[in-house]
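Support request, please re-run this one:
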Amino acid sequence: MKNLLFISVLILFLVSENLCAQRMLHGAVKEMQLNKKSGNRNPQSSLSMRPVFETDSFYDVTASAWDYTGDKLHTYYQSNCLDSVVTETYMGSNTYRFTYQYEGAPYFYNTYQLTQTWDGSAWQNYLLYINPSLPFSCFYDYIYNLQWNGFSWDTTYGRKTTQYAVDGYGNPIFIERKKYVSPGVWVNYMRWDFGYDTNHQLNMQEYSRWDTAVSQFNPIYREINYTYNNYTSLCVYSLASYEYQTWDGSQWQNNSKYFYRNQNADTLFILNWNGSSYSDSSQMIVYEQDLDGNFAGEADYYYNGSWVLDYFDWHYFTYDINNNIIRDENDNDFYSTADSIFPNTVALYSNFQPCAYTVNVPGNESGENFWKIYPNPTTDNFTITFSNQSPSIHNQLKIYDVTGRIVHEQKLNNQSTVINNQFSSGVYFVRVSCGERVFTQKLVIQ
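Re-run finished. Output below.
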């Protein structure tokens, strides 16, 4: 069972490499859709109650019956509604324990996940996933998948940022990463390049891979001509359309165009390039959410004279009188047109508890409801202050310049701290670690 868990987790990391490489690159809407494909409920849900108990079952198609697969006990940190320890049991016996940590409101990236197994008397380390953000928050700094060897953690999969540059508006110009090959050996792997319009909105991103034969990054694909329903920042926007091109070795070739039917982005159409223009829709993806923003379903279609269902993933939620989700049934046909759609899994939730406080303020990715920098911009000293609801003891402060160099760091042991201005004019990123949470804000020194 351990090997099966390890393989499934490793596949998840490999699949999520491209997702994590882009992180929030496609904005709130597209990232939401990527999350939907994993079947996860939207972490921005307005619900402030979280379940303590969960019972899971898997649908046996042959027997046309639900098979019990285990129970889960959710224990939440008192700082938010997501950091948690989930203890898995089967018929009353411990099996696995997962410890989760998140950062980056309102999206709550899963930046830490520890998996432990029960040996009959104690919990033993098994797998560890670490994925913190860069100071400008939309992109990961590094991602490691580690396995416990009995004495220490061995790296089994790794990507890390080695170089990046940021413009005067805090937007990344490029990001380069290396990948883990063997102990102590990292090799060049990939590069992202970004372009912006006169309003400093993202209008191009290009992905390249390292070519060892010529010792350089060669382009693979790019996305261009972004249009938006709305745009707040690099991390907060709703896409309307964009074009996808591939590199043929000498020039860019049109491949497809993506556009959303409306501002709710409930339907995505994909048009293929036929050599002279974009043809009729070749693929359609329909997304649904319930009234609380929870993922409700996805249906993928391809066009063959008429729309043909290719993939179906749907959730049926049951609520109690307090609007808490008490049942989540997932139907899925796993890309198999030969099989009819059938129930896949069901999770039953109970014993809900309130959050100590919430940090899911839409558009507030920097955690400004917990701490503030003022004045900002500034030409003189500036002050960092914490709200009454946030812990202010033993917080760690780090200030980065646009090259990623740490120019100042210190402990913050008071509710309010004055920082002496010893920096040159420019853009800086101020990062505060509050226990398990990490928040970043931009500071402008004039």
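Residues 2-22 form the longest helix (21 residues). The radius of gyration is 23 Å.
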